[in-house]
Amino acid sequence: GDGNPKESSPFINSTDLEKGKEYDGKNMALFEEEMDTSPMVSSLLSGLANYTNLPQGSREHEEAENNDGGKKKPVQAPRMGTFMGVYLPCLQNIFGVILFLRLTWVVGIAGIMESFCMVFLCCSCTMLTAISMSAIATNGVVPAGGSYYMISRSLGPEFGGAVGLCFYLGTTFAGAMYILGTIEILLAYIFPAMAIFKAEDASGEAAAMLNNMRVYGTCVLTCMATVVFVGVKYVNKFALVFLGCVILSILAIYAGVIKSAFDPPSFPICLLGNRTLSRHGFDLCTKMVVEGNETVGSKLWELFCTSRFLNATCDEYFTMNNVTEIEGIPGAASGLIQENLWSSYLTKGVIVEKRGLPSVSAPDTPVDMDQPYVFSDMTSYFTLLVGIYFPSVTGGSRPRAPAAARATGVLPRSPTCASPHISSVVLFGAGIEGVVLRDKFGEAVNGNLVVGTLAWPSPWVIVIGSFFSTCGAGLQSLTGAPRLLQAISRDGIVPFLRVFGHGKANGEPTWALLLTACICEIGILIASLDEVAPILSMFFLMCYMFVNLACAVQTLLRTPNWRPRFRYYHWTLSFLGMSLCLALMFICSWYYALVAMLIAGLIYKYIEYRGAEKEWGDGIRGLSLSAARYALLRLEEGPPHTKNWRPQLLVLVRGDQEQNVVHPQLLSFTSQLKAGKGLTIVASVLEGTFLDNHPQAQRAEESIRRLMEAEKVKGFCQVVISSNLRDGMSHLIQSSGLGGLQHNTVLVGWPRSWRQKEDHQTWRNFIELVRETTAGHLALLVAKNVAMFPGNQERFSEGHIDVWWIVHDGGMLMLLPFLLRHHKVWRKCKMRIFTVAQMDDNSIQMKKDLTTFLYHLRITAEVEVVEMHESDISAYTYEKTLVMEQRSQILKQMHLTKNEREREIQSITDESRGSIRRKNPANTRLRLSVPEEQVGDGEEKPEEEVQLIHDKNATTFSSSSQSPGDEVETAPEKVHLTWTKEKSVAEKNKSKSPVSPEGIKDFFNMKPNQSNVRRMHTAVKLNEVIVKKSQDAKLVLLNMPGPPRNRKGDENYMEFLEVLTEHLDRVLLVRGGGREVITIYS
C-alpha cells in the first residue's frame, strides 16, 4: 500500500481482525501479551491472500473516513483486466484521430525522413516511459489509479497532485480532441449537408466550419457524458464494436497498399501549372469542352473567367498555364517515394504546388482566395507537427486497472504503436502523391479522406472505421478522466477537490464526470483539432517526464523497498526518457511548456501549503534522507567559519499538568529569529521513568508540535524523560543535534518564581544550566518577563530595540537585533546601542569608533556612550574573582534563630533586582573604588545598611515539573527595607525565642560582606541608568554575567540579576559562547 491508514492494506488493518479475540493456544503463550501489536503470522498471511488493490467504493470510503467499525459487504466497482483496462484504451487512442485525419498531412509536409524521425522520437519517448512505468507498477502492490498513483507514491503528494491534475487535464482535453475529430469526419466526409453554418464565399469556410464543430461537438459531448454516467459496463460493450472498427480500418489500409502496387485506384487530381485545384465546382479537368459544334469554356473555365465564351476575360495565371491531370494514388511501386522524401513546409494561405512541373507565374498578380485552389490553412513547421502528432502515440490505462495489468498491458503498447505508425509513414510517402498528402481535407480528390483513398475495398471502410474509432477514444477519455480526478480527490491532498471524490454506491464518479464535461467543453469551444492537440501534448509529456523521474530516483537511491519484479529497466533509460520528454515539450511549443510547468508549479505549492499531510514513503523523502545523510557527513564537526555562523537554537520549555507549553511567547520569539536560517530544537523535560511516563511524553511532544506549527517555527521537537529536571536538561544540552548540525545557542525563560521554591531547586537548576552552557561554549539567551513578549500577530509601529553592550563576548548582542528586525513584528523598531565609559575614557572617540565599527558590520543603529563612575563598572571587571556568600550565612552572622530566619524570609522584600556581569579578560584591569567610610575595618557605623531581598508575599510550594524556563504571570509586590539598630532591636523584642546578650552584641557588630556591597551598588546604579535610557524600549538586550565560581554565592547571583533588570518590561539577557559570531569581512 501507500502507507495511508485509510486505504485497505493487510499490513495496516490486520490487527483489527484480531481485536476482541483472546488467544487460547498454549504453544505461543510466551507471546500472548503482545498479540494485540504483533499478530500471528497465520492471520497476517490470511489477510495477504485475500488482499485486493482495487479502490474502495464511495460507501466503503466514507465508512473508513467516519471510522465505522461495522463490517459491510463491499460494493465492488467494475473490474478491468489487462485487455479491457489497459491494452484496448491504448489502442483506441493510438489508432485514432491523428492517424486517420492528420498523419498523411504530416508526411506530406515534413517528408518521409523528418516524419520518420518525428515518429521515432515520440515512440521512443513512450517506449522508455512504458519501461519505467512497468518497473514502478511491479514494485509491490500499488492501488489502482494509473500514472497518478505511481507518481504520487514515488515522488510524494506534491508532485503526484501537480502532475496528476495536469494528466487529468490532458486526458480531458484528449476527449475534446477525439470529439472534434468525430465531428470533422461527420461533416467533412460523411454528411457535409448537415452543416448548420454555411460560408457565403471561400474565405468564410474556416469560420463556418469552427462554428459547426462547436455546436455538434457540444451535442456529442452531452451524449457521451450520458453514456458514461449510465455505466462503464456499457462503454465496455461499445468498446468491442469500436475495436473491431479500428482493426478493420488498419487492415483495409494495408490491403489497399498491397493492391495499389499492382492495381492503383483511380483518384485523378487536376493541376493548373503546378498548382493543385480543388475539385469542388467542376468535374472535368480541362479548360474547354465541345458542346454540339461549338467550343466553349468548361466549368473550370467559368471559375477563372468572366463567362463561358472564349473571348471572356480570364485570370492571367489561368491563361498562361496548362491544365494537367495526374493520378493521386500512383501506388507503392511508382517510385514516388524519392519525391516525397524531403519536407515541403507551407505558410498560411499558400497554394499547394507540385514540385517539378513547369509553371509560368504572373508578375504582381495577387492570389484570389475565392479561386478553386487548394490552400494551406495554417503555417507549418517541424515543432508544430510534433505537437500535433504526439497525442497519437499516447494512451492511458483506466484508473480501475490493477498495477500488474498496467505493467503487462502498457509495455506491448509501444511496439504496437511504433510498427503501424512507422510503416504508415513509409507507405503513405511511397503510394500517395505529394500534393494529395499536403491537402489536409482531401479537396483535390473530391473531398475524400486522404487515407481512405488508399484503402481497399472502399474509402468508406476507413471513413466509418475512423468515425467509430474516434467515438470510442472519446468515450475512453471521458471514462478515465473522472476516475483519475476521483482518485486525486479521495487522497485529500487538494482540499477544494474533495467534493469530487463522491459518486455512486459502486464507486462510479458523478461530480467528477460533471467537471470533466465542463472542462472538455472548453476544448470543444476552441474547435480546432490542430490547436487542441499541442495542449494535451504538454500535459502528457509532463506526466511521462515525472514517471521517468520517479523510476530514476528510486533506482539511484537503491532503497530497500525498491524491488520491482520487472527487471528490464535501468536508471539511464529512465533519465533518457525524462530528458526526451522535456525536450519534446519545448520542441512542441516553448510557451505552452512554460505555461504547463507554471500550472504544475502552482498546484505543487498549493498542495505543499494547504494540502493534507500525507506520508507515503515516497522517493522524494528518500532522496531527502540521502541528501541529509550526505550533507551531515560532509558538514565539518568543528565550529563553522564566522561568516557561516548562525544561531542554532535549543529552546527549553516547560509544560503544565496537561502537557501544554506554559509560555508560548517563547516560541513566538523563536520564530521571530528565523532570519538566522538555523536549526531549531524545542525541547522539554518530564520527571519520572521512561516506562511510566512514555504516553505523557508523546502528548507533550504532540502539544509542542502543534504550537510550533501555530507559531510557524520550522524545526524539531524533543521530549526527554529523566529522574530529575537537572539531569534531563543536561542531557538535552549535551546530546541534541546530530553530527555537525548541533545547537550553539540555548534559549530559556527567566525563573521568575525562583524565590517561592521551598527547596530552591528552581534557581539551582537555572544556575547549573548557565554553568553547563558556559562549559559547552554555547551561547545563552534568557528571556525575562517572557509573558510580555509580543506574539507573531502583534506589530510594533514604532519604538526601539536597545542593546546595552557592557562587555564583548562574540557579537551576539549585535546579531540578534539585526535578525529580529527582519521579522514583521520588529521591522519598524529602530536599533540603539549603548556602551559604558569610565571617567578617564574619551567618550567622544568611543562613539566615533563604535559608529565606524557598526558601519563595517553593515548594521544601522543609533550610538550612545554612557559615562559611569568606576565603582559602577568595576564589579563586571572582577566578576569571576570575587566570591559571594550565601544569604543563610549572612543571616547566621546576625544570630537569628530558626523561627526568626523564617519570619525574615517571609517578610523582607527588596524592589531592586540584579544581574552580575561576566568579567573582561584577565589582562584588562579597572580600579575598584568603594568609599572607605562605608566598609571601614575598624569603625562601627550606627546606620550601616544591609540589603536583604525577598518577595513580600512569597508562598511556598513545590512542583516537580518546574524548569529554568519558568515565569510567573503576576509580579510579586516589592518593598525596600533598610535595617538599622532600632529596627533590629524592635524585631528582637518581638521574638519569642530567647536570645543571649552576646548574640545581640554580635548582631550589632556584624558588617556586610564587602564584595556583596560593591556588587549590589553596581547593579542598582547600572539599573538606574538603563531604566532612565531604555524604560520605553520595546526590547532591551543586556550582557548576562556568569555565576560565581564559589557555589555558596549562587542565591546572591540571582538577586543581583533581579536588581539589574528591575522596572524593564522585556529583557533578553545574552551570554556569548566564547567565539566571534559576526564579522566585518564579506
UniProtKB/TrEMBL annotation:
* Annotated localization: Cell membrane
Which Gene3D superfamilies would you find in this protein's record? Amino acid/polyamine transporter I
Question: Where does it primarily localize?
Answer: membrane
State which residue ranges cross the membrane.
86-105, 117-142, 162-192, 213-232, 238-257, 511-529, 535-557, 569-593
Do the record's keywords include ATP-binding? no
Per UniProt, the ranges with Polar residues bias are 1-15
Amino acid composition bias (Basic and acidic residues), ranges on this chain? 58-71, 897-914, 978-990
Specify residue ranges for compositional bias: Acidic residues: 934-944
Keywords attached to this Swiss-Prot or TrEMBL record, sorted alphabetically, are:
Cell membrane, Chloride, Glycoprotein, Ion transport, Membrane, Phosphoprotein, Potassium, Potassium transport, Symport, Transmembrane, Transmembrane helix, Transport
| Domain Amino acid permease/ SLC12A stretches | 86-258, 461-650
Provide the residue span(s) of the region labelled Disordered.
Answer: 1-20, 56-76, 894-944, 978-1001
In the bilayer, the protein is annotated as: Multi-pass membrane protein
Q: Which GO terms describe its molecular function?
A: potassium:chloride symporter activity
Reaction(s) the record says it catalyses: K(+)(in) + chloride(in) = K(+)(out) + chloride(out)
Q: Where in this chain does the record put each SLC12A transporter C-terminal domain?
A: 664-781, 793-927, 990-1082
- Listed GO CC annotations: plasma membrane; synapse
Task: Kindly give the InterPro entries that the UniProt entry links to this protein.
Answer: AA-permease/SLC12A_dom, KCL_cotranspt, SLC12_C, SLC12A_fam
The entry sums up its family as follows: Belongs to the SLC12A transporter family. K/Cl co-transporter subfamily.
Q: Return the protein name.
A: S12A5 protein
- The species this protein belongs to is Mesembrinibis cayennensis
